[in-house]
Amino acid sequence: MPNKSPHYLKLHSKWLKRHKKLKREIESKHQDAINWISDALPAKEKLASGAVGALMLSNSLPSIVTTPNIGIIQTKAETVQKVDKTDQMRGQLALILPKEMRALTPGEEEIIGHILSSNLGMTVSAEIDDRRLNRSYGLIGAEQHLVRYPGDTMAGHLDNNVVANNFVYSSGMAPGRGAWGYFAKTKADFGKQAKEQEKWYIAVQTFLAPDYATRLSHYRDWFKFRKMLLVNPKTGQSVVTDIGDAGPAQWTGKHLGGSPEVMQALGYHTGPRKGAVLYFFIDDPGDTIPLGPVKAAN
């Protein structure tokens, strides 16, 4: 190692002392947040994720890092203020999510499940009943409307308050049916539930689920209209959806697709019409959670 100048050594000593001081302050002021993340992570994932280390060793904390039970932030000016839960959720997710687009580890999925569940008031998980998809974090792209019943037309997809030239209408309707056929056998049978299921549908890569080919009967009906929570991690925009189709193909580079209404709810209805999204199963055996946008609110 080359010799360091006295000036360098003096600055190094000052920065080291400051670093230790900041570390002590972080441990003192944010111990609840540190404990919350540490408790949520499995032991084998604590070091790999770096979440706790990022909290304790960084020379400043993100201004939106909180825990569900605290509801406050500590700014650099040492002032305390309340924040809404959308910002809170975004800050927590930022500590865990990888910078690159990749499949999450089991430990990351577990702690993200805790974050989403506590902020959005529902129980979500990457795996339910020993069933899961190939991933829970991926790139979503825009899909067209699906045919809901024999003879369905694009005009029938419009609500009274939707103008004919907006994104929802201009997306058009797919020429074929979804993976589970029509949402209703006839127009007469088409009701509110079927309308909501198509409106908030997503297409996921069911065919890439672990051991799908050897467990076809195990998976096939279970995925049909299964509720999933989708979250845009950058904005916190969230929507409760249902699985209405299979896809997209692997060669597209996308991992799931969303109806025009889903993409609009996520903030991905402009520009390239695609982006990063978290998608977790919702544990709702009583079918009490409605489809559509949901907010992380106090």
Give a written overview of the molecule.
The radius of gyration is 23 Å and the shape is elongated. The strands form three sheets. Strands 6-10-7-9-8-11 form a six-stranded mixed β-barrel. A two-stranded antiparallel ribbon has the order 1-2. The chain has a two-stranded antiparallel sheet with strand order 4-5. It folds into two domains: 6-96, no CATH class; 106-294, Barwin-like endoglucanases (Beta Barrel), CATH 2.40.40.10. It has 298 residues and is an alpha+beta fold. The protein starts with 5 loop residues before the first helix and ends with a strand. It has helices at residues 6-29, 31-40, 46-49, 51-57, 85-96, 106-120, 167-170, 192-199, 216-223, 260-266; strands spanning 72-74, 80-82, 124-125, 127-128, 131-132, 137-142, 201-204, 227-231, 238-246, 256-258, 274-282, 292-294.
Q: How much β-strand is present in the residues?
A: 15-25%
Helical percentage: 25-40%
What fold name goes in the CATH topology slot of the largest domain? Barwin-like endoglucanases
- Biggest sheet descriptor: 6 strands, mixed, barrel
Could you say which structural class the secondary elements and strand pairing correspond to?
A: alpha+beta
**Mean pLDDT over the full residue set:** 81
Cα shape: elongated
The total count of helices amounts to 10
Spans where pLDDT lies below 50 across 5 or more residues: 54-82
SSE string, helix = H, strand = E?
A: HHHHEEHHEEEEHHEHEEEHEE
Q: State the CATH architecture of the largest domain.
A: Beta Barrel
Question: How many domains in all?
Answer: 2
CATH domain class of the largest domain: Mainly Beta
Rg over CA atoms:
23 Å
Distance between the termini: 54 Å
- The CATH homologous superfamily of the largest domain is called RlpA-like domain
Order of strands, widest sheet: 6-10-7-9-8-11
